[in-house]
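ASSEMBLY PREDICTION REQUEST
Request ID: AP-0331
Submitted by: J.K., bench scientist
Number of chains: two
Total residues: 643
Priority: normal
Notes: Please return the full assembly, not individual chains.
Input sequences:
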Amino acid sequence: MGSNQTVQGRLNQPGASSHKNRNRILTAVTLVIFVVFLFLADQGIILDSYGVRIIRLCGVYTIAALSMTLINGLTGQFSLGQAGFMAIGAYTTSLLIIPPEVKEQMYYVTPIQGWVRDMQAPFLAAILIGGLLAALIAFLIGFPVLRLRGDYLAIATLGFSEIIRVIITNVGSVTNSSIGIKSIPDTANIWWTTIAAALCITLVYRLMKTSYGRAFKSIRDDEVAAEAMGISLFKHKMLSFVISGFLAGLSGGLLASVVGVINPLYFRFTLAYEILLIVVLGGQGSITGTLVSACLITAGKEWLRFLDSGFSIGPITIPEISGLRMLVFSALLMVVILFYRRGLFGSNEFSWDGLFRLIQRTGARCKRLIRRGEKGGAAK
Amino acid sequence: MRILETKHTTMRFGGVTAVEDLNLYVDQGEIVAIIGPNGAGKTTTFNMMTGVYAPTEGQIMLAKKDGNLEDITGVRPDLIAKRGVARTFQNIRLFSELTALENVLTAQHLHVKSNFATAMLGLPQYKKEERAFRKRAMELLEIVGLADQADSMATSLPYGQQRRLEIARALATDPRLLLLDEPAAGMNPQETQELTTFVSQIHEQFGLTILMIEHHMQIVMDISHRIYVLDFGKTIAHGTPDEIKNNERVIDAYLGVAEDAEG
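STATUS: Completed
Returned structure:
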């Protein structure tokens, strides 16, 4: 009887927190502040258009990084094909939202195909179609590549991603080859990107709470054991890979609309590395870590731009060195990786309780340091 | 009733024959042990039965629900698990980044009836399933004495508890046949004694058939109905515990001096 009660108790409150109400209020307040901030930014009151663009990119990169977190961090399949899927999403969306007349003018080397010129869709439909097409390609690529493991999978996905890019470069009548596509309507404003990012986070978060999500994690932790427990490895890897492809395609579509100009070079493997960087820094397997790190890296890279244009620290004047920004950025990253080997969040998720514990711990550590300092002073 | 049978099963890795001409059977409700020195091919036998390896020669037959034997040679591990064979591993293989409860829940994924969309949308059908899974998982943790550790990370548990969690996880797949690969490895005499009681208890409670690999002669002799002895891949003896204890070849190859086995 007694044991039955403990079972019931656990069922009702999995991981019950004593601060439930406080946490709810904090979440609500944070959300309200965030929405007000977005509103003010959108109106141009607190940020200029450059700042707004960075926030928009944060949303886009969050989705792209989530796509990689899902397949790499949560399912344990080292896939580097994100750039290719993003390219598919970006091109599909762009071609669906640019007016036919504009498209016709743009294709001056190879004339545009009739159906490409005439296809049109509203923005929401366009990004979804872009995502779905990327998911379809992921499904097809998945059959051969998901039989591979570890580094081999990474190489194969990277290879397919390059193949996609090469195809895009070579079908000029559809993609305008290496000239790329410009005048992409600027539809993806701060609301589009932020809401899309929020929805995608919710999607992945929910997914990981279901039995399917647990199956993904079990494959990451131990394939042999997962298979012995009746989990079909291929089916679940494929599911994760296709959803990951969809998210990458979606982020590609939004990216195209934010940057306005795309060409095949934009989607080289360096883009995949950039996203991988976000995932590693945030902590493989942490959804909130991905969000935080996507924003940090996107904003950080822009903020460090002042380094490239020359500046002076007191009497020392640093001349204009282009690329200094990336040097400093890399050094900062190395510092982070040295001190947080598993990324900022590891495989944990953000929680208010966790934040308060961190503050308490840091506070206690500071107190200890101060006390030690006082003692040291007294000894002198 | 026969539940598992291997017919002239041989497994070769290049030039090495790990298991040779194995003819083993397990009947419904039995506890059968496989013993033998290191490298005798015991774990390879398990790996063939669970589909990790496809045998080089011979067949492996598993009883279907209706009792007829079905050839499962070369069938994928997850499909064999779905047919009612669960196992534990010699070197514990828990899902390290999941809690004890999640480990058990994961093993119930093969019972999920809701499709992916139903689960994502959190429709009542899935919610009901998830509730039932959680209830069952907690019951299993209760049985192995880990209910109060449900939210602990699997790898933070002490060694003995990890072993028991692995058994709980295997039970969560609802097996008819449970394969235990050295369940008492690294345990002290008292823990071994507890494990012996525990294995007989789940054997009765779940109406299980158990096939186990074990080095602790005490547990093997105490609870198994029949014993197979392997040495260098060959089956050198087969019989009841008493027959095995007094078998010359077994004593030579494995048990050593007879007094050791008695003690």
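REVIEWER COMMENTS: The domain at 2-84+175-262 of chain B is CATH 3.40.50.300 (Rossmann fold).
SIGN-OFF: pending second reviewer
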